[in-house]
Design goal:
The complex is a heterodimer.
Chain A lengths: L16 H20 L4 H14 L1 H26 L7 H17 L6 H30 L3 H21 L32 H19 L1 H11 L1 H6 L4 H28 L10 H11 L4 H17 L1
Chain B lengths: L4 E12 L2 E12 L3 E5 L6 H8 L7 E6 L2 E2 L5 H6 L2 E4 L11 H6 L10 H15 L14 H14 L4 E5 L7 H16 L3 E6 L2 H7 L2 E6 L2 E7 L5 H9 L17 E11 L5 E11 L2 E6 L6 H9 L6 E6 L2 E2 L5 H7 L1 E4 L13 H7 L6 E2 L2 E2 L1 H14 L15 H13 L5 E5 L7 H17 L2 E5 L3 H7 L2 E6 L2 E7 L5 H8 L11
Parallel strand pairs in B: 3-8, 3-9, 6-7, 7-8, 13-20, 13-21, 16-19, 19-20
Antiparallel strand pairs in B: 1-2, 1-4, 4-5, 9-10, 11-12, 11-14, 14-15, 17-18, 21-22
Classes of the chains: A mainly alpha, B alpha/beta.
Chain lengths: 310, 504
Amino acid sequence: MRIKLERVPAPMWVRPLLPVAAIVLTFLLTTVLVLMVNANPLKAYYYFLIAPLSGKVSAIEVLVKATPLLLTGAAVTFAFVGGYWNIGAEGQLYAGATAATAIGLQMHGISPWIAIPLMIVGGFAAGVLWALTPALMKVKLSIDEVVTTLLLNSVALFIVSALLNGPWRDPISQWPQSPEIAPSAIFPKLIPRSRLHLGFLLAVFIILLLWFVLTRTAFGLRMRAVGLGTEAARFAGIDVDRTMLISALVSGGIAGLAGVSEIAGIHYHLIDAISPGYGYTGIIVATLGTLNPWGVALAAFFIGLIDTGA
Amino acid sequence: MSTINAVEMYNIHKRFGTVIASNGVNFSVKQGEIHALLGENGAGKTTLMRMLYGLYRADKGEIRIFGQPADIKSPKDAIQLGVGMVTQHFALVPPLSVTENIILGYTDSFQLNMDAAHQKVAAASKKFGVAVNPTALVKNLSVGQRQRVEILKALYRNAKILILDEPTAVLIPQEIDQLFESLARLRESGLSVIFISHKLNEVMTITDRVTVLRGGIAVGTVKTADSTPAELAKMMVGRETFGVQKASAVHRGKVMLQLQNIAAMDNKGLPALKNISLDVHTGEIVGLAGVSGNGQSELSDVLAGIRPSSGGRIILDGQDVTNAGAAKMMTAGIGRIPEDRHKSVVSEMTVAQNMALEHLSPFIERGLLNHKSIRQHAEKLIADYQIKASPGDKIRTLSGGNMQKVILARVLERNPKAIVVAQPTRGLDVGATEYVRQRLLNQRDRGAAILLISEDLDEILELSDRIAVIYEGEIMGILPAEKATPEQMGLLMSGVRGEVQHAD
């Protein structure tokens, strides 16, 4: 007898459970690996998931780790909802970080009230600029954005590398890292003697803004229509090209903010390894959060938790 | 007609997920009869025949061919048992010749003798009375000729039972007559034909017996001669049908929608529309008839504002709206009901959102969406248009009829000056079809100018005041509806211009 597979849509109540099921399955699989090295899986999971939250210092560290993921997750979500498959958040993050560094280096003697907004705006603009070429190629020439945005990630990394080994090389240490940005450009700490900085508030604000735009504005509704049914959206008189372009560019800008936040909040100078793949993890955060702003926030904290425990 | 049963199907069950396509169907066809399988879309006709042809397997039930229990696992088994099937989508290779298509996969030796093959096909063509030219290339044949090749292909493989799935859907009236002549001859030679259809007049004309399916159940089998169209319609729908009321008095007014020498390309960049000129007045329905693929879709897209025209002008109420884009054309007063429902609504969005999407401005308050007024708007339309759905349902979950009502409501509530409607009842059941047609007639009586693009000739004849015929992207002629005969329209639809009458 032949077996035929027929695709049946999952019942409504199952759908929100699917990401949960994926996580449970992952834990079951890792249990096997932990057992193979003769360790106690429960103990492993304790250090992984519970221990980080049991101390104040490490709990704050979870928020620190979640900050760039909230931003890249929001960035990817904004693009994906609009039907634009932006795989380039990593490159856009580096563009934002580079701009933030360039501005931060010039801020000596200037008030933080000017320096910090300037860096945020500049980083956003750099992310937009880095997202512009593939977005235009997609809208005007129908060139697949998955390929172009992905390829531009390497280009961004090489430009940063060239800057660090050339004009921005630290004159004192000769390490491939930029000089430190001006003290007035450094994000203030939210909790004294911790690493939690202004970037976290910025990320939370962006998540709220994401929710607001997607659910409360006409543009958000049009954007969702474009993402869910491009042809139907065009039929309904929506300017599909313009909508998609905006969603791609804003996505790039938000990813750029993640770069600003890491420079001004954590490192204070540009280094090669400013992001251990936050742009790519943002894709996981966005999909695990089912492109829902609250889900994205939850996924970012979850991955921040795992990252801290690891 | 003999008394031997060529096909017997007993207690056939088949379900797809939660949908029951066959629920204990019993069905039999005698040798040498033409047997109609009648039912609405989704009644389970095609599913039943796909099980007979080995494309699906029944969950439960028994199939016998000429009295022998048959275990049909694939079309190959079906062909060996003498079952042939001709679907609406022909399985022919266009660049190959008729002979090559017919012998494809049915050659007996390694070496191919084309001359002998041509002769064998010519002999079969003569024997079965199905006229084809063996050396012609399939790509040069008309749809009707291609269908004959498909039928001959089945007969060449020694089919004793021939399944035809809606064979007339793609044909013009003259080709339908030819098909029926061929079928009558084949019946004389002892072939059994299963004729899947939802068109009553055809079933009355050609078949010996009728089995009616409704919702996966065989409602009954009757002798065609002892039955009437009204009786069959009642069996098919499960209630009396009434048709639509067309007010005979035409309140035809000024020219509202004017197409002047419209040209446009298809998706491959080839000319699909050449020089289309047509006037639609207020208070009239102009039907645009034609065989599928002669530029209807492109014209509908151009008038919907989603395909640019490469020449000519579109004038609405004196205003030039050529290539103005969907949003501006709607604002100017064109209502659009497109042929592909799924491409005009966002299926993953809700009924309420889709109803608001074309005109969002009334639902924006101080820059923000007013979700409450979007829902109230939807509730009103759902009540007015008797849509079986709630505002929060995703469009995806709606039946074809309810989906069409959503689109209809969204367009008609704005009382558009002109309405461009394409294939409005394709795939709908009888109830929904009557509803949609009545609504369109009401719009005509209100004074809208309606361009009805349809491949359903009955629909065109029933609703139109004037009928234009399109062939290869050109208007072949315009006739007043009361003077149009199916024969005359058939000629125009096949590109024979004859005497062009202008009914202005």
